[in-house]
Specification:
Layout (H helix, E strand, L loop, with lengths): L16 E6 L4 E6 L6 E5 L7 E4 L6 E6 L8 E8 L2 E11 L20 E4 L13 E8 L15 E6 L7 E3 L3 E3 L5 E3 L17 E3 L4 E3 L16 E3 L8 H25 L26 H30 L16 H11 L1
């Protein structure tokens, strides 16, 4: 019998026996598989000690021991026949439910006080990882005399993923391992083409002679399944020079175009236009919704917004410096006495 997944074994009985376990391994039963018997052997400490239970007065040839598929029950059925009538099938029901009534205790916060211990499938192996991860399971302590029940249905303790190693990879299609353990092409076959589909990540890799085992969850380490690296198409894989050309140059060009129209049409600061307009200039009053007009309107909007901000900042600075201003822009001039008289005459 083994308690560690088959790494170590110990002999519990002589001769051939049928066996079955229930309640997640807290109870084991065996029956002779070579001759008729009237008893079974059972253990509640994982095979350390065995006791005998007589199930009938007549010996029966046991052919099978069955229980629920989940192996969580403490009820068993012996299937077989009696030697006096081999063609007649017989079944014997054995119930261990009343043998132990104490419930096992699992305390994740105080594991030293409960009825379970942590066990890893690779605790006796040189490799610390199995399928790219370290996993610890709860199993009942061998000397804990209690009932597990459904307590361990979802009690799997994940520890961590391991770095990828050679054991996490297998040969790709049309490859096989040679005497040295390396994957080499199968004669008469062609390697599969590389898959450049970008499902996750920013890169795709050329196919190699290896592929990662499907159940392995290893991360990092050596990646025998990755050949040359290629960036996936998308905005994440463009450098600073690309973004400079893509963003700065178009806005700079639009600004130059806007500035050109700004100077050409006399819209610079300080230009005075009379209400009558310029007789020599042809003004067209219509709405232009073309693409060029839309592009030109962008720098107009930006410069207008900047002008508003500049005026606000200038007004605040002017008030703080006692009204001193530069030559640009309009200023408030006090009205003298002559102007006041002229204004009155105009009113008359």
């Amino acid at each position: 019998m083994s308690r560690d997944g088959g790494f170590t074994w110990e002999e519990v009985q002589k001769d051939a026996h049928l066996w079955e376990f229930g309640d997640s391994g807290s109870i084991l039963i065996m029956a002779n598989d070579e001759e008729p018997t009237d008893h079974i052997l059972f253990s509640t400490d994982e095979g350390r000690n065995w006791r005998e239970y007589i199930f009938g007065d007549e010996k029966m040839r046991v052919k099978e021991i069955v229980t629920v598929p989940s192996d969580t029950s403490r009820r068993f059925i012996l299937m077989g026949y009696y030697p006096r009538s081999p063609v007649v099938h017989a079944a014997v029901h054995i119930d261990f439910s009343s043998l132990i009534t104490k419930k096992c205790i699992l305390d994740l916060n105080h594991p030293e006080d409960d009825d379970f211990e942590l066990w890893s499938p690779n605790e006796l192996r040189n490799e610390l990882c199995l399928f790219g991860r370290q996993v610890l399971y709860h199993r009942r302590k061998r000397d804990a005399n209690c009932v597990v029940g459904k307590l361990l249905e979802s009690k799997e303790n994940f520890v961590k993923n391991c770095a990828c190693e050679d054991v996490d990879f297998e040969c790709e299609y049309n490859y096989k391992r040679n005497a040295s353990g390396e994957c080499v092409p199968v004669p008469g076959t062609q390697p599969l083409a590389s898959d450049d589909t970008c499902i996750t990540g920013d890169y795709w890799y050329e196919r190699t002679a290896y592929r990662k085992i499907h159940h392995s969850s290893c991360e990092g380490g050596i990646r025998l399944d990755r050949g040359l690296e290629h960036p996936c198409p998308g905005y994440k894989n463009h450098g600073a020079f690309f973004w400079f050309i893509f963003l700065v140059i178009p806005f700079a060009f639009a600004g130059l175009v806007g500035w050109y129209y700004y100077r050409k049409n006399g819209f610079a600061r300080g230009t005075i236009r009379l209400p009558g307009g310029d007789a020599g200039r042809n003004y067209n009053y219509y709405s232009d919704s073309s693409l060029s007009a839309t592009i030109v309107s962008i720098p107009w909007y930006l410069m207008g917004l900047a002008s508003m901000v500049w005026e606000a900042v200038s007004s605040r600075l002017g008030s703080a410096t006692g009204g001193m201003r530069g030559r640009n822009g309009y200023r408030t001039v006090p009205v003298d006495e002559d102007a006041q008289i002229l204004r009155f005459e105009d009113d008359d």
